[in-house]
Amino acid sequence: MVNIMPAVAFPTLPEVERIAAMNDPVLRNLRITQCYHELALAMVGRTGVIANWCAFATWASKQAGQTIRKEDLARTFEHTLGDDPVLVQAAEDVAAGLQQIGIKLGVDDIVRLIWNVFDPEAAVAHSSEAVARGNLKVFAEIGREFARFYAMCLDDPVHDDQKIADFCQGLRPGEPPDGQGYLRRAFLRYYQAFFEPDLKQRSELLLLANLEIGYHEQTRLQPEINQALVAPVITPEAFTRNLLKALRPNWGQLNNLIWLMMRLLGRLTTLDATVVAFLAAAQRQTQRIVTDSMMTIELPPNRLLRLGDDLPQGFPAILQKIDNPDLQALLAKIDPTPDSLEESGAQYWGDLPDRLHFIADMFRCYQMSPELLDRPFMPGEVPD
Q: Model-level pTM?
């Protein structure tokens, strides 16, 4: 039996369910992140100081918290949109088009209204909500299964086929997103690792389990990731109508009639062209900002990884050559550049195979880094 560290208390199933039931997405994310850390430490008592999936999930959840709290996106929008020369010119062109149809405000005043109507904060809120849903979705399923696994199997002094089989009976067969076959296999590997005395074989079992859970998790998260990456889209017609309402707030329903009459008379042709150009530029820049924000993760100590770049750290010596045939097979499926970090950067985080390639190499690079088990928060940072 492998038991390198003393056992530690781990989050119970009722605790995990209580966190998942929290309504406040910001507080819930903090508790999810801390809970992942505690779940990660619990397994280390049986496997040694090797990062399990919960260790990686801790830092991914902490990074997600910035988007959920709207910190990174709000700052970036504030500093980027107003300084983009293409966007500034496009907004001024819209302002000039409005002056041509009789709007008497100055360009600067009109531009301020244009930004209010475009509402970049809506993109922040949209991404925040999608990331919060994904954060909860993964924790409510996978965090729950870790707590259930520990309660049933963590303290087993010898390998008990019946106990691990009973645990696996609670997981649905089949492929993700609906089936939990990858989770079944992953927890079987974790259980096997509890009793594997050889460090290399144990490390490969843990990497295989981590990747199997990662495959399931990322497949399940595909809708939320794509929703978070796509900025809200407003049509040129709706934008123009809303802009005219903002310019003439006292006209009420007359705005709709005036808008229709000007369109029938051809008065909006020039304005339409400037609005189309502005929205194309604004939505393109908004998409870029959201994507850049989503494609960053910080691992301890102070390793800021840009997910679009190739990973900077090589594989640890113990994982440079893979012997486990099941791990070889899974890597062949999700890593198109075997045993290499070339092209490991994900060009678009919304592409599942691209994302899995990066995650496979990231898990393999950092699994043996003890810093991944560092606490994510200082004492008192997470409210009870």
A: 0.86
